[in-house]
Design goal:
Elements (H helix, E strand, L loop, with lengths): L1 H13 L4 H21 L25 H18 L4 H13 L3 H14 L5 H14 L6 H13 L4 H13 L3 H12 L8 H12 L3
Helix pairs in contact: 1-2, 3-4, 4-5, 5-6, 6-7, 8-9, 9-10
């Protein structure tokens, strides 16, 4: 720390590191090493921080986000082998595939969830539309457009459907439509909505108008 301050001071006033600065740094380095050698070890009353071996940590704490998601996919697949008619598990599997950008697999899982659902659900239709949209490199097909419309017909304020729609409007330079759709999202009473992010998106779109 002292060395860094000396270099900074020398450079600030002389615009270069002077020889005297280098000499002082050398002295400080020798003193530091000598002092450490003289002490030999830390005093007995020094509070030592516990060292935790990596092997002692839970496996999940050593895994990356993608590894954790892959583990979740495998766990859901294991459960589905025992209960293939569980629509909620298929929906969860689709979401896990979406996280890892496996859009085709996600679409297949969502389709099973739709077939097993006791009644039409807007979330499943919007999920299917989203998976297809990204599988097609951020383009709507007639089928994904129909799924999106079905989702909004069941729930005009479905957040995931509206977010997908607003994103597509923005991507295609339809900025006012994107703003209006994001505003519709803000007008909902959803408590799990990241309103700051939506407001930022609106402000970004306004800069293009």
């Amino acid at each position: 720390m002292a060395s860094a301050l000396i270099i900074a001071h020398s450079f600030r006033y002389n615009r270069k590191v002077t020889p005297i600065s280098l000499i002082i740094i050398g002295v400080l380095t020798v003193v530091s090493v000598t002092s450490y050698t003289f002490l030999g070890h830390e005093p007995k009353n020094t509070v030592m921080r516990p060292v935790v071996a990596l092997e002692a940590l839970p496996e999940e704490m050593l895994m990356s986000a993608s590894e954790l998601n892959q583990k979740r996919i495998e766990e859901i697949q294991d459960k589905l082998r025992e209960d293939t008619q569980n629509g909620e598990l298929w929906y969860a599997l689709g979401n896990a595939y979406m996280y890892s950008s496996e859009f085709e697999n996600a679409g297949t899982a969502f389709l099973y969830a739709l077939r097993l659902s006791p009644e039409p659900q807007s979330n499943i239709y919007s999920a299917m539309a989203t998976a297809s949209y990204y599988q097609e490199k951020q383009h709507f097909t007639p089928q994904s457009q129909a799924w999106l419309e079905q989702a909004l017909a069941l729930d005009e304020n479905n957040i995931s459907a509206l977010m997908l729609l607003a994103s597509d409007y923005f991507l295609n330079a339809r900025y006012q439509k994107a703003i209006d759709t994001w505003q519709q999202i803000l007008d909902t009473d959803r408590t799990d909505l990241d309103r700051v992010e939506v407001i930022n998106a609106i402000n970004r779109a306004k800069r293009f108008i």
